[in-house]
Each structure stands twice: as structure tokens, then as C-alpha cells.
Automatic annotation (TrEMBL):
Ranges where the Glycoside hydrolase family 65 central catalytic domain occurs: 322-687
Chain residues that bind substrate: 357-358, 599-600
Family according to the record: Belongs to the glycosyl hydrolase 65 family.
SUPFAM superfamilies noted in UniProt: Galactose mutarotase-like, Six-hairpin glycosidases
UniProt GO MF annotations: carbohydrate binding; glycosyltransferase activity; hydrolase activity, hydrolyzing O-glycosyl compounds
Sequence ranges assigned to domain Glycoside hydrolase family 65 N-terminal in this UniProt record: 13-266
Listed name of the protein: Maltose phosphorylase
Length: 767
């Protein structure tokens, strides 16, 4: 871990070109708008180590599975969000010498991710081989207001010479995914055109036929005066561009504005793509760079109004939390219910940009509280639309009924190909059910249950019904051969969390059925008919709920992570020689699996989700037992521990865990940020502040707050949208203020007392 970024409240700043950290910076300084994302690659040529990455949400490739030993039931492919046409490229030559920061002397380099405005900028002086010096100032963004548009302003000033600057703006579709299984290239050219003022390129994926059309145009000015340019068109395989040269005097500023529209066949028919791209580009060019920039600033101002967290008295913490919120808002904007949240967002290729249980278990709460409820609803609808595929998935694995959602997916099909995850990590089904509960509990949108929720719940319950194992000798139901959230144990019997979430799902499904029967009888009848739901089934669910087996140790009075857990060597992590950690880099997999070391919250995940069903003592006993055995080698781990520690009053532990999640990428804690940022942990960080330090819970339709100040901050404040009102909660050293920023009055419970906060007013409560 090397700290090289400057602390600042609103920006991420790299001062001095950190060549060896460049791929990490490419991830951290990524920009995105939910529709497309771009790593912080340079516009000009760069011959140093780099992961060139431009990604279009939902455009993926089914890369043929690569495994050593095929097992029946494996998915045929691993889906990957594709590295798409590089649209940012602008080649620069100074008197014939290519500008390449890996090959020249770089001075006064600054790279800034301006989170307030949603832009990435860079400035530096480059001294070329022959001593010529230029200053470059580049600014770019992907538009939040017009999601298909990317815009770049790139300015060059010769500092100690006058001469010819040659500029080559281009679109390059000849790109490859770094993680391609067979080193294959996934794109084929469909169409290209270099017109007088516009160049267009359409490429398509070799499988699935996704088409992406990029249309670009550019303008140049010298010292503010527009230039009339002589352009040399360039066409190569999957590549279009222009080359033009301009004589520039010393200290004159040459500015290039490059505009690109990227459109895809997800939104337009093949025949419409070019026109759609041209139309989007035309209106962007007419608006001009300044106007597009202004729009960008405005959309981000709205985003921050809804989701900002302010931490007073700790710049590093302030920067970190804003970075997390910024990346989450860049990753998913929620307008398109076909999209989801990849564990790395658009910042890298690891995990293929696919959907994991991370979305339901970790990301949903952020969108529930900081955006209109339709956004979180769309995350649920995404799974509803995949229900048929989840049923097929269950059939494929030999189940007669029910639905098993995939552990990793792009289109509803499973695409993870490690058996212990594909076949065994079935707890993900529970997270999908839990998300429905979470959404309805938070928003009060009961109508969702009849519209979509029940169908998903019933099919998941059917899956559990078939997956459980009745043991006559014990007259109990068990779930054998699973992997729980802790992936450092495989093929265990009766993972407490899995048994618990399975039984909870059936319980909730029955509750929803009762609710619908009473409140929406006609819809209830329709659904019973549609699902062909039989009384024997619901009776069976009730029986399983009553007779579910939960591993438990009477002596320690704790739930057991799985049947054999106490047979392990229980030496706590603190007694391990630090040279052994991280275990996943130092131990054989076999040794890890036999150990008691826990990768991420498991029993505690259950106690967190179902927090209102367990008393503090139970949570405390289990936390005290499991946390010391936990190595937190998943980025999903520290946040749950931080939230639970807050509830238990373990303030130091809560803060320690919070620190591990908050600056995970900025300080490259796990030594892997070059692969991309950890979006799930970003959502977890947000939860650590709001659900942890803020103590936010929703009970019986009322917002409950139980805040404490971790002591390292003067104060902190967060915003939550709740049932139509937006509340700002400020936790100071002595008191808590809840300010209603809307006109809709809100009921809030602080430290167990209920208050009504009138429109545009506030209440203050002492700690
Ligand atoms: C975690 C999983 C998670 C995945 C993607 C793994 O390391 O163990 O729980 O779904 O990463 O974030």
C-alpha cells in the first residue's frame, strides 16, 4: 500500500506523475454515468503499463468457459462486460515526435477527479526528447444529462518553441478484454465512415450481435479563434480518425474539443444506430462544451443534494465517503431495469461486470435511501425479469421446481464456473428474497408484492423446499453440502446463515401470501392460479420453518457457522503471525478451507439482516466469537462488522472496521485496485456511516435513528429519502439534528422517542 493521493474534500488529486501507480489511478479516476464508463486512460498515446478500458453497460460477451475439469451443470460461458471502442483517443505529435508520457520527462503533473462536478482533468508539462516543452491541460466527462455523450477539451501550449502540432482524434474498435479466456478478440467491424466533419464506426460482438456505434466530431481553436482545418481522413481495421497539423507559436494555446456519441443496439435497431448516434452528437455539438459542462455540474449538484455525506474535522474521511458515493452514482443511475451493478462498476474488468448477490445484500440500501424509490425498484425488477431463467437454472441442476438465481449473471443465466460457488453458494437466493422485504419495508410500496414480489418469493421458497433434507431420526430439516457467504469453507453441512435465510424466505413468503389474500384478494387468486400454488406446498413450508435445524453450541451459546465448526483450531487472527496474511496470498487453498478463518461475515450476516429478531446479547456473543476469527479478505466484510459493532457499542472496533472499508481503493488496501474499484464495499461504506454510526433502521414504517459520533469527527451528516421526504441527519458532539429538507412532514424516532419533523423544519435531540 502506497499512499500517493492528496487529501481534499471534493477531489481526488494526484500530484506528480506516479508512473508505477498509473494503473491504480486509471481505476480510481474512472468516470461513468450508469450507461458507459471510462477508465482514466490518457487521450494521447501511452506506451507504459495500462489497462485501456471503455465500457458500455449491458454490452457483454459470453466468453467460453475455461476450466480444467468439466462438471455437469457448469455454465457454458462467463459473461463479460466488454471493453468497447476507445473513444477518448487523440494522438499528439510535436514536430513529428509522438507525445507519450512513458517516454518523455513529465513535470507539474496533476490529475484531478472533481467529484462535485463529475469531471476528470489533467495538466502537465512534457519535455520531449529534443528539449521541446509543451503544457497540456485536458478535461473530460461522460455526460450525466445526455448519457450517450462523452466530451473532451484538450489544450496544448508550446512553451519554448514554435512549431507544428499534429493532432489525430480517432475511434478505435480494435480493443480486447484483458481477461479474455482464450485471448480472443470479441469485436468485428460492421461499418465505418470518415465524412467531412464526422467519423463513425460500428462494431459488433462476434457472439450475441451487440452493435455499438460511435460517432465523433471535433473542433479546434488557437488562442480562442476557431480554426479551419485541413483534414486527412484515416481508415484502418475497426478504426476511423482524422489527422491534421497546425502551426502554433510559442505560448499560443491550441484547443481541441472532441465530442463522441456512443449508442448501442440495446436501445436502437441496427438500422437506426447511425442516425441515432448522429442525432445525439449533433445536439451535443450544438450545445457546445461549456453548456455540456454546465449540464454536468447541474446533474451532479442534484445527486449531491440527495446523497452527500459531510464529515467535519477529518478531510481523509470526507474525501473517502464522497469518493464512494461518487463512484456508486457513476455506476448505476437506475433508469434502465435491464442493468445492474458489477462489483467493479465501470472501473475494471474483474468479475466481468456481472451481477452478484452484492447488489441485493449490499448496494440496494444506498439507492433506497438516496434516490427515488423507482431506482431501487428497478433493481428488483431486474431479478423479476430473470425469474424464468432462474427456474431453468434450477431445472438444469436437477430440481423439479422452484428457482435458483445465479451467483453471477448478465442475462439471468448462471455464468460462474467454480462448482463450490455455482452449485453450493445457494444463499444468494435468500438475498434476493430479502431485498424484496427490504424494499417494501423501506418504501412502504406494498403494491410491489402483488405485482412482482410474490412470484419471486414463491419460486425461491419452492427451491428451498426441494433443497432441504429431511432427517427422520432427528425429525428435522437440514441443508447439506453448501458454501455460505464465507467462501473459506466449502461443502459444509448446515451453514447457519443458509438455513436461516432459507427458512426466513419461506416465512416471509407465507406472510406475503396472507397479506395479499386479505388486501388484494383478486390478485391473490390470480397469482395462486398463475403459480399453480398448492396448499400442500404452503403447508410444507410451514413444516420446514418449524423443523429447520440450526447448528448451535449450548456451552458457548452461539450459532455455529456449520456443523463441524467447533472441531477446527480456533486460534484467533490476532495470534497469527502477520506474515501469513492475507491468507489467500500465502496459504494453500486446502489449508484455508480446513482453517477456522473466516473471509467475510457469515453468521453475522444473518444477525445483521434479521437484526430485529435477535437481542443484543445474542448478537454480542456471536460477534465476540466470530469477529476474532475473521480475516476480512472480502471487501464485503468490514462494513457488516462495523455496523454490528456500532449496535453493540464497540465504538473503537466500529471505527477500525469503517476505516478498512472507507479508503479501500484510495489507499489500495488490498493491493488490487489496478483491477478496478470495489463498488460493493463502497455501498458498504455508505451503510457503515448511515446504518452504523447513524443507527438507521426502519421498523413498522417508521425511520429509527440511533446515532453516535465515532469521536474522531467534529460532526457528520447524511441524507436519506424516506417516504417522500428528504431528511438531513447531523450528528454533532452533543446532539443530533434532523432537518426536513422537503415540505412533506416526516415521523422519525430518535433514541427511541418519536418526533414529527414538519416540512422545512428540524428537531434537535441531545445524545
Ligand atoms: C465474495 C462474494 C462476492 C464476490 C463479488 C467474493 O470475494 O466472497 O461474496 O459476491 O466477491 O464481490
Amino acid at each position: 500500500m502506497k499512499k500517493y493521493l492528496k487529501e481534499d474534500k471534493w477531489s481526488i488529486i494526484e500530484e506528480g506523475f506516479q508512473l508505477h501507480q498509473h494503473e491504480i489511478s486509471e481505476s480510481i479516476f474512472s468516470i461513468g454515468n450508469g450507461y458507459m464508463g471510462q477508465r482514466a486512460n490518457f487521450e494521447e498515446a501511452y506506451s507504459g503499463p495500462t489497462l485501456q478500458g471503455s465500457y458500455m453497460a449491458g454490452v457483454y460477451y459470453p466468453d467460453k468457459t475455461r476450466v480444467g475439469w468439466w462438471k455437469n451443470g457448469y455454465p457454458e460461458y462467463f459473461a463479460k462486460v466488454l471493453n468497447s471502442t476507445n473513444w477518448i483517443g487523440i494522438g499528439i505529435e510535436i514536430e513529428g515526435e509522438i507525445l507519450d508520457l512513458a517516454a518523455c520527462t513529465v513535470r507539474e503533473f496533476t490529475r484531478v477527479l472533481n467529484m462535485k462536478e463529475g469531471t476528470l482533468s489533467r495538466s502537465f508539462i512534457a519535455e520531449l526528447e529534443d528539449g521541446k516543452e509543451i503544457r497540456v491541460e485536458a478535461l473530460r466527462f461522460v455526460s450525466m444529462a445526455r448519457h450517450e455523450i462523452g466530451a473532451i477539451r484538450y489544450a496544448i501550449t508550446p512553451l519554448n518553441f514554435s512549431g507544428k502540432v499534429t493532432v489525430t482524434p480517432y475511434l478505435d474498435g480494435d480493443v480486447q478484454n484483458k481477461d479474455s479466456n482464450y485471448d480472443e478478440k470479441f469485436w468485428a467491424e460492421v461499418y465505418k465512415e470518415v465524412g467531412e466533419s464526422e467519423a463513425a464506426l460500428t462494431v459488433k460482438t462476434k457472439k450475441l450481435d451487440f452493435h455499438v456505434t460511435s460517432v465523433m466530431s471535433f473542433e479546434m481553436s488557437k488562442n480562442g479563434e476557431p480554426l479551419v482545418l485541413e483534414l486527412e481522413p484515416i481508415e484502418k481495421d475497426k478504426y476511423v480518425g482524422y489527422r491534421t497539423s497546425v502551426d502554433v507559436q510559442q505560448d499560443e494555446q491550441l484547443v481541441i474539443y472532441k465530442y463522441v456519441a456512443n449508442v448501442t443496439s440495446r436501445d436502437y435497431g441496427f438500422g437506426q444506430l447511425l442516425d441515432a448516434g448522429r442525432a445525439a452528437l449533433k445536439s451535443a455539438v450544438e450545445a457546445g462544451f461549456q453548456e455540456l459542462h454546465k449540464e454536468q455540474v447541474n446533474v451532479w449538484a442534484d445527486k449531491w443534494r440527495e446523497s452527500d455525506i459531510v464529515i467535519e474535522g477529518d478531510v481523509a474521511a470526507q474525501q473517502a465517503i464522497r469518493f464512494n458515493i461518487f463512484q456508486l452514482n457513476q455506476t448505476y443511475t437506475g433508469e434502465d431495469d435491464r442493468l445492474n451493478i458489477g462489483p467493479k462498476g465501470f472501473t475494471g474488468e474483474k468479475y466481468g461486470g456481472s451481477t452478484y448477490w452484492d447488489t441485493e445484500a449490499y448496494c440496494l440500501p444506498f439507492y433506497l435511501s438516496t434516490a427515488d424509490s423507482s431506482i431501487a425498484r428497478n433493481l428488483l425488477i431486474y431479478r423479476y425479469k430473470h425469474l424464468q431463467k432462474a427456474k431453468e437454472n434450477a431445472r438444469k441442476l436437477g430440481f423439479v421446481k422452484g428457482a435458483l438465481y445465479p451467483m453471477v449473471t448478465m442475462n439471468g443465466e448462471e455464468c460462474h464456473n467454480e462448482w463450490e460457488i455455482t452449485f453450493e453458494e445457494i444463499h444468494r437466493n435468500g438475498a434476493i428474497a430479502y431485498a424484496i422485504y427490504n424494499y417494501v419495508n423501506y418504501t412502504g410500496d406494498q403494491a410491489y408484492l402483488g405485482q412482482y414480489g410474490l412470484e419471486v418469493l414463491a419460486e425461491i421458497s419452492r427451491f428451498w423446499e426441494e433443497r432441504v433434507n429431511y432427517v427422520p431420526a432427528k425429525d428435522q430439516y437440514m441443508i447439506l453440502g453448501v458454501t455460505g457467504p464465507n467462501e473459506y469453507e466449502n461443502n459444509v453441512n448446515n451453514n447457519w446463515y443458509t438455513n436461516r435465510i432459507a427458512s426466513w424466505t419461506m416465512e416471509y413468503t407465507l406472510e406475503v401470501l396472507q397479506y395479499l389474500k386479505k388486501s388484494e384478494p383478486t390478485r391473490y387468486e390470480e397469482l395462486v392460479e398463475k403459480l399453480q400454488l398448492k396448499e400442500e406446498e404452503t403447508e410444507k413450508w410451514s413444516e420446514i420453518i418449524t423443523k429447520m435445524y440450526y447448528p448451535y453450541d449450548g456451552e458457548k451459546d452461539i450459532y455455529l457457522q456449520q456443523d463441524g465448526f467447533l472441531d477446527k483450531d480456533l486460534t484467533p487472527v490476532r495470534d497469527l503471525d502477520p506474515k501469513h496474511t492475507p491468507l489467500n496470498q500465502n496459504w494453500s487453498w486446502d489449508r484455508i478451507l480446513r482453517s477456522a478463518y473466516i473471509k467475510q461475515a457469515d453468521v453475522l450476516q444473518g444477525l445483521f439482516f434479521l437484526g430485529d429478531r435477535y437481542d443484543l446479547d445474542t448478537k454480542k456473543r456471536n460477534f465476540d466469537f466470530y469477529e476474532p476469527l475473521t480475516v476480512h479478505e472480502s471487501s464485503l466484510s468490514p462494513c457488516v462488522h462495523s455496523i454490528m459493532a456500532c449496535e453493540l457499542g464497540y465504538k473503537e472496533k466500529a471505527y477500525e472496521m469503517y476505516l478498512r472499508t472507507a479508503r479501500l481503493d484510495l489507499d489500495n488496501y488490498n493491493n488490487d485496485t489496478e483491477d478496478g474499484c470495489h463498488s460493493t464495499s463502497m455501498a458498504g461504506t455508505w451503510m457503515s456511516v448511515v446504518h452504523g454510526f447513524g443507527g438507521l433502521r426502519v421498523k413498522d414504517g417508521e425511520l429509527h435513528l440511533n446515532p453516535f459520533n465515532p469521536g474522531h469527527w467534529k460532526s457528520f451528516s447524511f441524507k436519506v429519502m424516506f417516504r417522500g421526504s428528504r431528511l438531513k441527519v447531523t450528528v454533532g458532539e452533543q446532539d443530533v439534528t434532523v432537518t426536513n429538507e422537503t415540505k412533506i412532514p416526516a415521523k422519525v424516532n430518535v433514541y427511541g422517542n418519536s418526533y414529527t419533523v414538519g416540512g422545512l423544519s428540524h428537531v434537535k435531540v441531545n445524545h
